[in-house]
Amino acid sequence: MILGDNIIENNICEAVQNFQKQKEGAKILLKEVSDANRFGVAEVKGGGVLSIEEKPQNPKSNYAVIGIYLYDKTVFQKIRRLKPSGRGEMEITDVNNLFIEDGTLTYEILDGWWTDAGTFESLLRANTLVAETGANKMSKSTQAQATNRPDTLR
Fold it and tell me: With 70 as the cut, is the pLDDT of residue 31 above it?
């Protein structure tokens, strides 16, 4: 699942391939940011995610959970268990925390830049980044893998 306001410099092919090797669970992508309180924030320790908090006033880390999520089929059972948050919304953070409870959530740090386009400032930043460097770039090895593997996202 990819939220529509996410723009990335490179690609997620390696993360998808790593997720396909998991027997179960979910994978999230993280990126270190200076304004973590705008996002879901992952508390990471010992190679795992301890918790995720949505838009915290005092973030436990600077690792934003970007809006790219990989889930197994149990996500639908987890979604049915959700209740509206204190903000009155159904939160994807709550889904991810249910995978943490199960011990089946993994993560990767996104390579390259990431931005959302959810504010005027971030939309301008996204436009500037894409104009300067491009977006959704694939390395030559990733392009070759995608061409030779029909089950890989392109």
Answer: yes
The residue behind tokens 């790219």 is 68
Per-residue model confidence as pLDDT tens digits over 112-140: 999 888 889 888 988 899 999 888 877 65
CB 7 within 8 A of CB 115: yes
3-state DSSP of the chain: CECCCEEECCCCHHHHHHHHHCCCCEEEEEEECCCHHHCEEEEEECCEEEEEEECCCCCCCCEEEEEEEEECCCHHHHHHCCCCCCCCCCCHHHHHHHHHHHCCEEEEECCCCEEECCCHHHHHHHHHHHHHHCCCCCCHHHHHHHHHCCCCCC
pTM of the model: 0.83
Burial class (CB in 10 A: 0-12, 13-18, 19+), 41: buried
Backbone angles phi, psi at 31, to 5 degrees: -145, 135
